[in-house]
Amino acid sequence: MPPPPPVLSDKPIEAGLYVVSTPIGNLRDITLRALDTLAQADMVLCEDTRVTGKLMHAYGLKQKLIRYDEHEAEMVRPRVLAALAAGSRVALVSDAGTPLVSDPGYRLVLAAVEAGHAVYPIPGASALLAGLAGAGLPTDRFLFAGFPPPKSAGRRALFEELKPVRATLIFYEGISRTADCLADMAAVFGERRAVAARELTKLHETFLRGTLHELAADPRLQAPKGEMVILVAPGAEEAATVEDADAALAEALTRMGPADAASEVAKALGLKRRDLYRRALEMKS
User: How far is CA 24 from the centre of its chain?
Assistant: First the structure.
């Protein structure tokens, strides 16, 4: 049985483009504001009318659905901009989660902004944030890198580019390529901690944790279809060498005295100010 439709707000929404987040699995993750918006939209743009149709049916919504994906976007966009210019309320959704995150829609939002139309984000479910919240990896700084290239050489080139980044790295990957992707990650990133999250918000939601090598060999990842959120812990900070400290001090001493130079370099390199101050005095003399 579909859930009963909630009591919708009778407050009319303004004209403009609404970027509406939808559930990534569990239909109960739709927000009341998202339902209000979809119920009042003059048109709903979606990647797949069948997928969005199921969501609309579950909540008794009957707005017209218009396909807007990478194949149709160029043809549909002028029609949407004309509707916005006429004062319409247009909702943009993706198949699951927050639109524009590895989904089409960026160019439409940009065109709407450039034409002077209002754009309203309607926040909600997001696979990358759900994965980050349950992973147990650092959350103070993270980088979403989308889908890695499908072939090993391209993946490894991307991972080499991201290797110096001091943040939790987040990727989307098709489950059929997950094991190979994790093996390439292990070859580039080494023994970093990682988490593979699948079926997020669904009945069989699973977080697999371990090193990259351990996860690459985990038989539970040998599934035929679906998508995975892969999260990789930041690499360990490399200790600064004496040469690093001397180079930094030499540059700082051109701008300030030994005491201030020692403080600046200590903060930047994570070294003891006392030792750096002594070294700065030696270099200055």
Answer: 14
The pTM assigned to this predicted structure is: 0.79
Half-sphere exposure of 111 (CA within 13 A, CB side): 16
Tokens found for residue 162: 């991201």
Could you list the beta-strand ranges (E) of 51-158: 65-67, 89-92, 119-122, 142-144
Instruction: Look at residue 182 and give its three-state secondary structure.
Output: helix
Express each pLDDT in 176-233 by its tens digit: 999 999 999 999 999 999 999 999 999 989 999 999 999 999 998 876 677 899 999 9
The total of other beta-carbon atoms located within 10 Å of residue 254's CB is 7
- For residues 239 and 208, what is the distance between their CA atoms, to the nearest angstrom? 31
Nearest CA to 145 out of 167, 123, 115, 130 is that of 167
